[in-house]
Design a protein that fits this description.
Length: 293
């Protein structure tokens, strides 16, 4: 016998500065099993576009740590898994987003992407890295930009290679960013690294695991830049639980990404083989007017 009646209710649950609305369906004033009233709760799936960890979560308890007391978090619940996955792939409402954070490429999960608008208020240290090569292969260099408490504090450039590639320059930039992150973590700082190379991010944080299980080989062909990847992956393994490694779409007007790009070209033009800190005047507009990769 169907004892359900039209009607529904909402319960407000305060989460830090947010309020999450949990939709509870009810059977009229309740349905009964034996002598007990039973309240049925609709299953929900949670999408986090911006937070400590992004993705699709199947329970609120697994989602909450990513958004609780994270003032810039962007998240929403959906009634079905299919809707949640589609919403995550299309990006948060009202924000321009990069590619899907869970696109498939030959059966492999590729790197997370972030919207072009980045929230750094809840992160102590935000690092942007980039590698450039012009032409490719050709003269290559790397750059990183560091923000502390949301303020631009450091620019780095170098590792010039007259016969480099874009991929090797991107790997070098990510390596230097991880080294900066490691030092910041020793000071008990929260750290996020943004890079625009899905190749570099996936090599270090995704593909390396399957290559390592196979004795650092892959199904067909050689693993290019293997020695470099092994070294960077080892560093990533040491700190991965305490640092976020995220993708940012290139040349979309994100200041940190654009400045890191200019640092790569500064490395090429100066032919600086070490990785050194920029000591000139930090005039953002003037730096952005420099040659881009």
């Amino acid at each position: 016998m169907d004892l359900s009646f039209p009607g529904e209710s909402f319960a407000n649950v305060p989460i830090g500065s947010h309020v999450v609305f949990v939709h509870l369906k009810r059977a009229g004033r309740g349905c009964f099993k034996g002598n007990k009233r039973v309240q049925s709760v609709t299953k929900k799936f949670y999408v986090v576009w911006v937070g400590r960890e992004t993705g699709v979560f199947t329970t609120w308890s697994s989602c909450k740590p990513s958004v609780d007391k994270f003032s810039a978090a962007r998240y929403k619940s959906f009634p079905t898994l299919a809707e949640a996955k589609a919403a995550f792939a299309s990006g948060p409402p009202g924000m321009s987003s990069g590619p899907s954070a869970r696109k498939k490429s030959k059966g492999r999960v590729v790197a997370k992407s972030m919207a072009a608008s980045h929230a750094m208020a809840d992160v102590d240290v935000a690092i942007y890295c980039d590698g450039g090569c012009n032409p490719n292969p050709g003269e290559a260099g790397s750059g990183t930009v560091v923000y502390r408490a949301g303020k631009l504090t450091e620019l780095w450039y170098g590792l010039y290679n007259p016969n480099g590639t874009n991929n090797t320059a991107e790997l070098n930039a990510l390596h230097q960013s991880l080294l900066i992150a490691e030092r910041a973590l020793k000071e008990a700082k929260s750290v996020v690294i943004y890079g625009d190379s899905t190749y570099a991010i996936n090599c270090i944080s995704v593909w390396a695991y399957s290559w390592k299980r196979r004795g650092w080989t892959k199904g067909a062909g050689e693993i290019k830049n293997l020695e470099k990847i092994q070294k960077i992956h080892s560093l990533y393994e040491r700190i991965k639980d305490d640092v976020q490694l995220l993708h940012v779409k290139a040349h979309e007007g994100v200041e940190g990404n654009e400045l890191a790009d200019r640092m790569t070209m500064m490395a090429v033009e100066s032919k600086e083989t070490d990785f050194i800190r920029y000591r000139g005047k930090v005039d953002v507009n003037a730096l952005l007017s420099l040659r881009s990769s």
